[in-house]
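To close the section, here is one more complete example, presented without commentary so you can practise reading it yourself. The ligand is magnesium ion.
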Amino acid sequence: MLSVADALNAILREARPLLPVSVALADTLGLVTAEAVVSDVDSPPFDKALMDGFAVRAADLSASETRLRILEHVTAGMVPTKAVTAGTATRIMTGAPLPEGADCVIKVEDTRIEPAGQSIIGGTVVTHASGQPGMNIVRRGASINTGQTVLPAGQLIRPQEIGALAEVGKERLVVHPRPKVGILATGDELVPIGSRPGPGLIRNSNEAMLGAQTQRAGAQPVLLGIARDNAAELRQRIAAGLAYDILLLSGGVSEGTHDLVPAELAGLGVQNVFHKIHMRPGKPLWFGVWNPAQAGSRQTYVFGLPGNPVSSLVCFEVFVRPCLRRLMGFQPAAAEPIRARLVQEHVAQGERPTYNPARLEWGADGPSVATVRWHGSSDLQAMVEANALAIFPGGGATYPPGTLIEVMPFDRPTDGSI
Ligand code: AMP
Ligand code: MG
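Output:
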């Protein structure tokens, strides 16, 4: 049986970024750039006032009183018409271009007008403020110059990147697209979540959960409903699911008489990469690729996830999410676990490495983690209390409080900062 690390490597060897496409800027949040973007303007495009006040020559200011004749009033969006010379000032508002000759702005709070109550232009501004060139202004091109790179390829697009791209006029952007993820639940015992289950039946909770995980990973889920444990139906529904970038199948990959998924995948020519991993929960995981031989053509990555809800959720976080990140152009595709201090003793049992539901907290002295009471792979309620998975090596051992263990947080930022 493959280790988690070997299985992850096998997935990432197969998965390649989706071909870049041009997307409207407003739809790129959470995606990764596939082109470098160069500025078509200086930013700011002119020397600009950062305060409401008076544009003056710093050399005119003195520690005692300074009196300057007011030339004109310039607000944001206007262009000054008069140069500031010795003994003069221009009234200026935040965001307006600095007039020629001026090299700083005195803020309005440090000034008064004389004679009081007169029209400002032609009046005198009186100040006791001193100042140096550059005070309360920002120079043209201070943040970026025409021709400079605003954003390289391979960058996560967050709201601030959207703003910076809008500033340089990028209405559309070349990005790795959002993968489309087909989700097909399998099982004779499943009923839609809107029905009350009859004897022996349960609700199809995995489809909604996997859809939500897909969405949170930045991809686009397509819910394909429930297929029955019947070879012909499975084959037909799986074949339709191969239209997506990733196909997630839930259930039917274990050893039971009704676990028909691997045989039907093989029958459809989906090439198996591995089946079963040395991990708890998640042992029955099946992974394969459809259309692997045709280099350059579209591939479908197929995950046969175990039907038990916690297994399904954990396999998504550990294996499907890195695969999605690779398709979306994220580097690195798989986030490293973080290390946190165990709050209470934990007794790990069993042969296989265990991903145990846990609560991770960020305290003054770093991250700490407590395992959540957990009744195994069907106990989704334990996951509701959890915000992380605590990873214990196989073989079983007692871990005293204070032990540093590896933890995979859910909801970690997509920029790879933790
Ligand atoms: P399987 O992997 O098909 O053997 O299913 C393992 C367990 O997970 C069984 O108890 C199933 O009833 C349960 N299960 C399978 N599919 C789902 C699903 N879509 N939603 C909730 N539980 C499921
Ligand atoms: Mg089943």
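Once you have examined the tokens, check your reading against these statements. Residues 185, 187, 189-190, 202, 204-207, 250-252, 254, 256, 259, 306-309 surround adenosine monophosphate (ligand 1) (CB under 6 Å). Residues 309-327 form the longest helix (19 residues).
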